[in-house]
Specification:
The complex is a heterodimer of chains A (555) and B (117). Chain A is mostly helical. Chain A contains 22 helices and 3 strands. In chain A, a hairpin with a 5-residue loop joins β1 and β2. In chain A, α5 packs across α22, α7 runs antiparallel to α8 and α16 packs antiparallel against α18. The relative contact order of chain A is 0.11. With 117 residues, chain B is mainly α. Classes of the chains: A mainly alpha (555), B mainly alpha (117).
Chain lengths: 555, 117
């Protein structure tokens, strides 16, 4: 009882801080409610306010998040702020990209007939779901409790199922939506079961409490089997969100079936949420409890290692076989998840406090999330900007590799956005992708994961083939005019082009100002190692050999 | 004296035996595995959805058992939230299934496989 008292008092103190830390989400939630109502208005100018208002909400939430420094009560206390600002920033580009994704045919009907049907309009749902999902992403970044983490992950993904299904009027989108939903529910059930076992093994749901309890278990001879089973199940379940190997099957179908702009959304938002969640869950079991100081506990590390290797290899090899640009980008999205998992395995480095950018794998993951988000949104924006009326009268976006042939000549701006984005995704030196990938390599090397680094390098080389193929098609190949298909024309939605240009500029400019970003990610990747029974807070930082009681690997 | 003792025992429940906990965990694992097998082997959309629901409830049973085992209410709180999410998911699933059924007049998931490769 005497032991329980301080922790409850601590909880009471932190409750107020917790609400303060949620101001960005609260602001975004209020905007969501307004957007939801405005989208149902009879007047077209009011309905058109939805997207700009969503942008305003995101700017506000981002500014609030940046103005505060909310340290959450978890092993990764500073990730919340970075994650929220990142969500708002990329969210803004996504607002531009998603313009006109739903009900453009409906809107033109309304303009022709002047008759508005609330039931058939989808604009309100779409933008409200968009904002709900980003609210979920922000909450995920700031979660300090398994319950909050579960709710935040579900808030991120539940709206996306509907957004995929309504993103176009084709049967394909329905198919994509239903596939995404069912695999998503399976993934959710899996990580929920994992969370249940983590709770069962430790008796807590607060991440800090779990970390302390796991530490005590390690000191007492080994991590409880229940806890370990829970951690593994949670990681495998969250693999659905990041499109990693055991749960990656849906990715190409869902990306191809939804509209290109929605695919760009799916490539960033659920993946970012998944990585925040995976880092939070893994941080409970801690880097620095394993056989060597910077390592994860045995079995968890093995599972993550296998997932990372399979994910990048499967993604890259299958991407070689595709003839649809969306599918290529989907498999590349799988491969990039594999790369980022390398950073998770490498951990925060020997200096557990963050320290150097090149040694902190968590900072590398956070930086990579930003650079991957910018680059992939650029590539999808190009596809979203090109469209044709197909024979059945529906609007069809560019998808086949033949569609982007000679794009630099026919649509120079779009062509160059594509070239810059895919070369960035490849990771060529002057561009952002290179600065994203470099710390993944260096942190893995300093963590002693040499085989993983070799596999990462081989995979980057495989990836060069299909990225360069896309760049080659745009830049060198002559434009192709197929007699069966109507020629592609630029979309009437100029903001999609703006989204593409913003991304392309980001790929170049963010690489130049990368130093500041690197500092931000190092702060965000600060990891608090648990105090052991010996009460040595500096344990992870000292250079002594691990003491024998830490040599535990429950298999 | 005896009365006060039983009262004290009633207000503070006895810790759960590990064996009892195992019984609950076995039931929960069975539910989870049945759900998983059903999800993989069946192609009817509604049955597949019910299977994911089974898996959610398996987690719920495990949470309640652990809650009783640790003698705190965190697990029970978690279950309430899980039920809420399960309800939201059910609403979403049924809406999607109705949408699909209207297009193809069938609940067979195999009919929705336009994209492959």
């Amino acid at each position: 009882m005497t032991q329980a008292l301080p922790s409850t008092m601590l909880a009471a103190v932190s409750m107020g801080e917790k609400f303060v830390a949620m101001w960005p989400e609260a602001f975004l939630f209020i905007t969501t409610c307004v957007v939801m109502v405005l989208g149902l208005s009879k007047s077209l100018p009011v309905r058109r306010m939805c997207a700009p208002l969503a942008g305003v909400g995101l700017i506000g939430a981002g500014l609030i998040a940046a103005a505060m420094t909310p340290d959450t009560l978890c092993p990764l206390p500073s990730m919340a702020m970075y994650g929220k600002v990142l969500a708002a920033g990329i969210g803004l580009v996504l607002v531009c990209l998603l313009a006109g994704t739903v009900d453009r045919d409906f809107e033109s009907d309304v303009e022709r007939t002047g008759w508005f049907d609330v039931i058939r309009s989808k604009r309100a749902e779409f933008w409200a779901f968009f904002l709900f999902s980003l609210t979920g992403l922000m909450l995920t970044a700031g979660a300090d409790d398994l319950i909050l983490l579960f709710l935040a992950l579900e808030l991120t993904s539940l709206p996306t199922y509907v957004m995929v299904a309504i993103s176009t009027r084709r049967d394909r989108s329905m198919e994509a939506g239903v596939k995404y939903f069912f695999l998503g529910a399976l993934g959710a059930a899996m990580f929920l079961y994992g969370f249940a076992f983590i709770y069962g093994g430790t008796g807590h749901t607060g991440l800090q409490d779990i970390q302390r309890e796991v530490r005590a278990q390690v000191d007492a001879g080994g991590i409880n089997e229940l806890t370990m089973l829970g951690l593994v199940l949670a990681v495998v379940g969250i693999c659905f969100k990041i499109a990693a190997v055991p749960m990656h099957f849906y990715t190409p179908d869902v990306y191809q079936g939804s509209s290109a702009s929605m695919a760009g959304y799916l490539a960033f938002v659920p993946k970012a949420a998944g990585f925040f969640a995976i880092m939070l869950v893994v941080s409970c079991a801690g880097w620095g409890f394993g056989e060597s100081r910077a390592e994860l506990p045995g079995m968890l590390r093995d599972v993550l290692w296998i997932i990372a290797v399979l994910t990048m290899t499967v993604g890259n090899v299958l991407a070689l076989l595709q003839s649809s640009v969306k599918r290529i980008l989907a498999y590349s999205s799988i491969a990039h998840s594999g790369y980022m998992l390398v950073g998770v395995i490498a951990g925060p480095g020997l200096d557990g406090r963050g320290g150097e950018f090149t040694r902190n794998g968590l900072a590398a993951v956070l930086f990579y999330l930003l650079s991957y988000g910018v680059m992939t949104v650029g590539a999808f924006a190009v596809l979203a900007c090109l469209e044709r009326r197909s024979r059945d009268g529906e609007i069809e976006e560019a998808d086949h590799v033949a569609d982007i042939r000679g794009l630099c000549k026919t649509h120079p701006v779009l062509g160059w956005i594509m070239v810059v984005s895919v070369v960035g995704l490849l990771g060529l030196p002057p561009l952002l992708g290179f600065f994203g990938k470099l710390p993944l390599f260096t942190s893995a090397i300093s963590a002693g994961e040499i085989p993983l680094v070799v596999i990462l390098a081989i995979n980057s080389a495989i990836a060069a083939y299909y990225y360069l193929r896309l760049a080659y098609l745009c830049y060198i190949d002559p434009p192709e005019t197929s007699p069966n298909l109507a020629p592609l024309r630029a979309t009437p939605f100029g903001s999609r082009r703006v989204a593409g240009m913003l991304s392309a500029i980001g790929v170049v400019v963010l690489a130049v100002v990368g130093g500041k970003l690197a500092d931000a990610t190092v702060t965000a990747g600060r990891y608090i190692p648990p105090a052991g029974q010996t009460q040595q807070p500096e344990r992870a930082a000292d250079d002594d050999a691990p003491t024998p009681e830490h040599v535990v690997a429950p298999h | 004296m005896l009365d006060t003792l039983t009262l004290a025992q009633a207000s503070a429940p006895a810790p759960m035996q590990t064996g009892t906990l195992h019984h609950y965990l076995v039931v929960s694992a069975l539910l989870f595995v049945i759900g998983l097998i059903g999800f993989v082997s069946r192609r009817n959309l509604i049955i597949m959805f019910l299977c994911t629901e089974l898996m959610f409830q398996a987690a719920g049973i495990a949470l309640i058992a652990f809650s009783r085992f640790w003698l705190n209410h965190t697990g029970e709180t978690f279950v309430i939230f899980v039920l809420t999410i399960a309800a939201a998911e059910a609403a979403l699933a049924l809406a999607l299934v109705v949408l699909l059924f209207r297009r193809k007049e069938s609940l067979d998931g195999a009919k929705w496989s336009e994209m492959r490769g």
